[in-house]
Amino acid sequence: MKEGKSFHISKHQVMQAYKCVKANKGAGGIDGVDFEIYEKDLKNNLFKLWNRMSSGSYFPKPVKGVEIPKKNGKIRLLGIPTIEDRIAQMVIKLTFEPIVEPIFYNDSYGYRPNRSAIDAVAVTRERCWKMPWMIEYDIIGLFDNIDHDKMMKAVKWHTDEKWVLLYIERVLKAPMVMPSGDVKERTFGTPQGGVISPVLVNLFLHYAIDKWMTKKNPQNPWTRYADDGTIHCRSEREAKRILEDLKTRMLECGLEIHPGKSKIVYCRSDQHDNRYENESFDFLGYTFRRRYVKSKNGNFFNTFSPAVSKEASQRFRNKIKEIRRGCKTISLESLAEIMNPVIRGWMNYFMVFGSREARKEVDYVNKTLVQWIKRKFKVTQKSNGKAWRMLARLAKSQPKLFCHWEKGIVPTIG
Prior knowledge:
four-stranded mixed sheet; four-stranded antiparallel sheet
């Protein structure tokens, strides 16, 4: 430790944190400083941040409240820290996350290294085959409602590093500048958009739900991805009991189960062929329900399985349409460069399960490219076949231009 410094935080830690934040990109915060501005005096900016953090004089600026439309038409409020504060939070995260990550259960998937939403979908799919009943639950305003005292109690249980405790508490209490310009003091919650927030949320729910479920209901497998979760049960009676217990548990922890997004579901299939009011649910963009499928042996049967949800499909179509409408004058190559990351990401996620349903949405890309060709080359509406033939020839001559063409989802005459 350097003389005069209260805490042992190295310049290397700050540099490493900056590189991580830079890789994640993102806009600036309330101070209006973006990466381009921050990097004009990078060495000096990082030195000043290190100096303040290591001396105990670092205080985060207010977070910038940004309203993001939700899929249900409502608004989600993100709290965006400044670039400097994101770097400081990353310094905390790189120190604190390795301490708590090993204690988290395997069935917790959200915001964790080397774990993904598709992993959670896969394990949920298998468990729905084994147990006929399940609970789908969602927590109301998780990031906004976490109790600071309970949160800090959990943090202190795992570390006595004074600077980590000090700065986590300061980050939690940093006020938010609302879109209206009003300043809102924070006595609850951790900003959704903060670097350290996902780790803190997982730690809080590790004790609030995960450990509680594992001890109280060891025979009931569960899966949690941040504030969305599933619990598998052997009977409706068991599911009702556990759901009521979960509601009570959440209230004890200062949280609340969302009544409109939480329900008991019957996983109907050939194996479990009774009827129930709820026979489907949405989880991480997939709709789970009874589907007629073909086995590897060529036999058809009914199983309870996931495929892309209608909402996810519509969002994908809207995004593709938005890109096409905003790129009327550019070349097809430039259009492909913009569309491909969207198409590739969607295919990588939604074609894992229920690929036939997902393929229909990728076919829509070809339809929207036909519309682009009509506008670009002034093809009349009556010459629809001409536009399809033009696109088909392009796909044949440049099969790697669009990533879905490369996978064989090519245009045919419409």
